[in-house]
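Good day; I would like, with your permission, to put a structural problem before you. A protein sequence and the structure tokens that stand for its backbone fold form the material at issue. Thank you for your consideration; the sequence and its tokens are set out here:
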Amino acid sequence: MTGDDNLYSQFVGFLKITLPLAALALMSTVFLFARAPTKETTIPYAEIEEIAREPRVSGAQISGVADDGSVIGIDAGTTRPNGDLMIIENLTATVESVNGVHIDIRAGTGEVDITSRIARLSGLARIETSNGFEMETVGITANMTTGQIISDAEIEVQAPFGALTAGQMIIETPEGDDGQVMLFQNGVRLVYTPQQ
């Protein structure tokens, strides 16, 4: 019996020494292998002054319902106020029309007149519709009150029935109608591809 007690007390004594030493070794490895201090990241004063001079919002969203019932949404990478205008960069707009057609618009830059609720997209703009139209033009004007979308320049279209170019395109809801129509005008050229 005394031999077992002696062995047990020797084991406890051994643990009293080895466990604190093991803990000390683990702690030293934490400090030994810790990462080197990283370079401090600071914002240059010129950049802070520019941000203060020109306030901006990242990831802004503007949405509304047009007179014809279409739901219009605009997402912007960055937005800057400029009087009654909101200057927008990396713009994506969506239109959910009453007749179920979904329209996606992407443009590099643009502006939204808050008073008149008119969005003007500048630069190359891409339009895709859920019924199979893919369009490219330079500049689009969208009326967020009426839901009307007008291309400012010639437009190139890939449609389910072929390809066409036109001097201008208008997407609108005629008075008394339930759905939107696309009107191509000013020198329309169509290359018809029959469906297989």
